[in-house]
Amino acid sequence: MSSFLPNFASGYYSTVAAIIIIILFAIPYQFSLLHQLYNSRTKSSLKESENLSIRNNLPIHWKITVWNHKFWNYMLHIIGVGDMSAKEAVLLAIYLGLNTVFLFIPFEDQLTHDIVLRNNRFGWVGLTNAAFVFPLATRNSVFVHLLGIPFERIITFHRWVGRIVIFMIMFHGGSHITYRWQTVTHDIGDLIFTYRVNLTGFLSFFGLFVIGVTSHSLVRRRAFEVFYYGHFFFIMFLLVSFLHDRNHVYWLSLGFLLYVIDRIIRFVIGYKETNITSIKALEGGVTRIAFTRQMKYKPGQYIFVHFPQLSKLQWHPVSLSSAPSLTEDSKQHHATIHLKSSGDFTESLFKLVRSSNNGESSTPITMRVEGPYGRPSLNFQAFKTVVLIGGGIGVTPIMSLLQDLVDRQVTGNPITTQSIFLIWTVPNLASYSWFESEIQEVQNKFSALPTEKYRLNIKIFVTRPKESLPADTTLLIQGRPSFDTLLSEIKNYHGSGDIAIAVCGPAVMLKEVQQIGIKQSDQFGLFKIHKETFAL
User: Fold this and answer.
1) Contact (CB, 8 A) for 100 and 171
2) Which residues of 378-411 are buried (b: 16+ CB within 10 A; e: fewer)?
3) What is the pLDDT of residue 292?
4) What architecture is the 275-373 domain classified under in CATH?
5) pLDDT of residue 486
């Protein structure tokens, strides 16, 4: 440590410590990949589970295993952060603790009572965090490959780190201004604009401030383009902070290089126009697009789409609603997406498609695709019983999983799954029409399977009480589902063994299903839950 200045050492060693922790977290995931590779080479097919008519009711887990599952998956509400599992809360606590340690740990030759040195420490540790902000925001992130955390989840860490950077830099600059106010002059204008280091520091923080304000969820979800263009103030932050202190390049250069590489990859992948085979505006403000593209995807993944007619720069995330073909050998893959009108971008797309379908517009609709991204946290094919839960348009990735599981059963592909339960809540029948044909197709395929071995149970809850339901279907149910009752019935039918749940929908639904699944997990079987959310 003696070779470094104290505050430089705080940034250097906090960076080293962060990298070591990342490597430690990456080791289990990398071993799991090797284990999966070994199993795929030594086993030609998955071992079939017992016939559904023979169900055991014997304990399969130790009590400590059950309590460990309940603890790490329990949902907490943290003010300023939102709902997160206990596992995520512990990780956040480790991250905040690491920053606290390197803010106040004494280094050799440092006068811990010196206010100037203490104020500088916030700047150096803030730069350490800033170095990780860039790769955490990349869709082809090195963290995705090291830790196995997909982009839609790792973006949460980007937000945490970004907020800490803003706080650190704000305290760094604010404490210096306060100190000089008390010891030099009481003129704020003189403090900021007379001294070059203060002016560059102020302008650098201003860039961060704009990013922070426009990143708030209210702006991000209601005015996405304001959020998107507001992030370009990072250029101002980089340039001016370099004038403020050139040593910051030691931290930010590698992270920024990873960001640039990601942007190049995304540009190359998404530059080519995609062949749209059909595009239609459905009832309820949903746009359905079928297309072909040279890509391989897995059920539950999502892509980013770009329509030049709507925006020159904006890319919108959307789940793939189709299942990948199990027999198609060519590189051209057929896929479908459903986009619900829930903002300016998707609403403009719906109006454009509707006018085009009605012959009111001759503007050709072109689309570019980037991806696929993401991955389910569970291997659903390895569970005897799978529960798929969707809320509104959140059923999109659920439909992809449903079709893939049934396709594997019908074609005889290796699969353990025998029972599939689909629970979908919709406000009205118009919403049901979004996937009515897909559900009918799945039922037709499933009818060829032996009912003594396989089971497909579909329940669609229409939540609006005034909606009149047709009498010729058993799928539709009036009212809201009781997930406590439904999961209890499924667990009793299933017997011993773990059950996989995939849920995508409103945040309230995600939390409710998770809490109920945790509550009903016991020694006879655990509910293992994969949640999908697109609050990017």
Assistant:
1) no
2) bebbbbbbbbbbbbbbbbbbbbbbbbbbbbbbbe
3) 86
4) Beta Barrel (2.40)
5) 93
DSSP 404: H
With CA atoms as reference, report the closest residue to 530 among 343, 394, 429, 415. 394
The span from the CA of 528 to the CA of 90, in Å, is 20
CA distance linking residue 65 with residue 56, whole number of Å: 19
**Helix, strand, coil percentages, rounded to 5, for the chain:** 55, 15, 30
The 8 Å CB, 24+ separation contacts for 253-262 are: 254/131, 255/130, 255/131, 255/132, 255/133, 255/134, 255/135, 256/134, 258/134, 258/135, 258/138, 258/141, 258/142, 259/134, 259/135, 259/137, 259/138, 261/140, 262/135, 262/138, 262/139, 262/140, 262/141
Non-local CB neighbours of 26 within 8 Å, separated by 6+ positions: 146, 147
CA–CA distance, 331 with 329 (Å, rounded to integer): 7
Q: Where are the beta strands (DSSP E) in 320-404?
A: 332-340, 368-373, 385-391
Domains 275-373 and 380-532 share a fold: no
Sequence-distant (≥ 6) Cβ neighbours of residue 525 within 8 angstroms: 60, 61, 491, 494, 495, 496, 497, 498, 499
Pairing of strands 455-462, 419-426: parallel
DSSP string for residues in 419-446: EEEEEEEESSHHHHTTSHHHHHHHHHHH
Q: Where are the domains of the chain?
A: 6-46+81-267, 275-373, 380-532
Phi, psi dihedrals of residue 427, rounded to the nearest 5°: -75, -30
Q: Residue 115 has which token pair?
A: 């206010």
Q: Could you give the C-alpha distances from 72 to 68, 75, 86, 419, in angstroms and in order? A: 6, 9, 5, 27
| 374's tokens | 């993401």
pLDDT in tens, 331-354: 667 889 998 887 777 888 888 888
* Architecture (CATH level 2) of domain 380-532: 3-Layer(aba) Sandwich (3.40)
Q: How confident is the model over 366-418, as pLDDT tens digits?
A: 888 887 888 787 888 889 999 999 998 989 999 999 999 999 988 888 888 89
The two tokens of residue 68 are 């460990």
Q: Are the CB atoms for 154 and 144 separated by under 8 Å?
A: yes
In the chain, which stretches have pLDDT less than 50? 1-2, 43-54, 111-113
Quickly count: other Cβ atoms within 10 Å of residue 328's Cβ.
11
Kindly report the length of the chain: 536
What are the backbone angles phi and psi of residue 62, rounded to the nearest 5°?
Answer: -70, 155
Q: Please answer whether residues 136 and 161 qualify as being in contact, where contact means their C-beta atoms are separated by less than 8 angstroms.
A: yes
pLDDT at 189: 66
Cis amide linkage into residue 397, ω under 30° from 0: no
